[in-house]
Specification:
Layout (H helix, E strand, L loop, with lengths): L2 E12 L2 E6 L4 E5 L12 E7 L2 H28 L1
Antiparallel strand pairs: 1-2, 1-4, 2-3
């Protein structure tokens, strides 16, 4: 599937962090800004996770460009000596 959706419980909010619990008992700390405005301790939240395909393509392009620039510099140094 292209995304995964699951439920978590908002345990509490403290010092700008949301303490979220998965059903398996794992604890997450998230910036409170990630939560809906009306979320409160005790609420059950739906989390959806998907691969950011466009971001992956952009990152791959930036990495390729950096590698190419480094390769070009190496070639220039080798030719200059």
């Amino acid at each position: 599937s292209l995304e995964s959706t699951f439920l978590v419980s908002l345990d509490r909010i403290e010092e700008g962090l949301a303490v979220v619990m998965t059903r398996e008992g794992h604890q997450w700390l998230l910036p409170v800004g990630y939560l809906p405005d009306d979320a409160a301790g005790g609420d059950v939240l739906r989390v959806t996770v998907s691969v950011a395909e466009e971001e992956n393509r952009l990152l791959a392009g930036r990495i390729h460009d950096l590698q190419q620039r480094l390769l070009d510099r190496t070639r220039e140094r080798e030719q200059g000596t």
